[in-house]
Structure to design on (237 residues):
């Protein structure tokens, strides 16, 4: 218990460091401008306007890696995949597969609780045109390294998009593996599953259909359930 408390404290310390980060002047200026200018539909809301931490279950076996916060989603609400269409898709599929307490992700204080899952991203600030620069990826990368080192129970990583997949490969020192939606492979004691990102560009054009999206998390659910059943059989429970 003391070890877990110590690790939780380290994660909290890391999260404070992320929130205070100003390494990327372009991104810091952009999220500050977005938070001041806003868009008409959110003109009466207070924007978070700072880098975002990951969130979820500290003991998660499922790690979901995204690209970056949305300008009027996470950058507004203060929580990744919250307050936009991508968050709608992710919350619903997590809920349907037993990884979330509710099927919606609207606000940071909406009661959503992740179960055996943790969400993070390659970049912690919303980038202009959703396109971070190479240096911005490099500046953010140490945060996911530290995060991953603290999430000791992770067994499956779901990568949302090619960029998240590249981050995962760098994190795990994976080489010579190509990205493709639905692709699944093992690396050491981890399973990696690839998916298209649930952006409007992908969901509204039909590039990412719900059944294909859902199948990714159904695979993750089955793998974790099978592993849990095997462990129980081995221990005689």
């Amino acid at each position: 218990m003391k070890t877990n408390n110590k690790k939780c404290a380290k994660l909290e310390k890391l999260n404070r460091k992320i929130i205070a980060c100003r390494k990327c002047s372009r991104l810091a200026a952009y999220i500050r401008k977005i938070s001041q200018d806003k868009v008409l539909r959110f003109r009466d809301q207070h924007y978070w306007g700072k880098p975002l931490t990951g969130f979820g279950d500290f003991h998660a076996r499922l790690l979901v890696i995204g690209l970056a916060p949305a300008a009027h989603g996470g950058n507004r609400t203060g929580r990744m995949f919250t307050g936009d269409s991508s968050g709608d898709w992710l919350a619903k599929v997590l809920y349907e597969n037993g990884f979330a307490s509710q099927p919606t992700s609207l606000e940071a204080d909406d009661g959503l609780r992740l179960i055996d899952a943790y969400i993070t991203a390659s970049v912690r600030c919303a980038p202009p045109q959703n396109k971070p620069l190479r240096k911005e990826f490099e500046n953010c990368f140490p945060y996911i390294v530290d995060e991953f080192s603290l999430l000791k129970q992770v067994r499956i990583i779901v990568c949302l998009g090619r960029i998240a997949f590249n981050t995962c490969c760098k994190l795990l020192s994976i080489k010579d593996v190509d990205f493709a939606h639905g692709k699944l492979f093992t690396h050491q004691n981890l399973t990696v599953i690839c998916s298209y990102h649930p952006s409007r560009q992908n969901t509204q054009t039909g590039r990412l259909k719900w059944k294909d999206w859902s199948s990714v998390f159904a695979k993750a659910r089955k793998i974790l359930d099978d592993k849990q059943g095997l462990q129980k059989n081995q221990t005689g429970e």
User: Anything to note?
Assistant: The first helix runs from residue 2 to 19. The chain has eight helices and six strands.
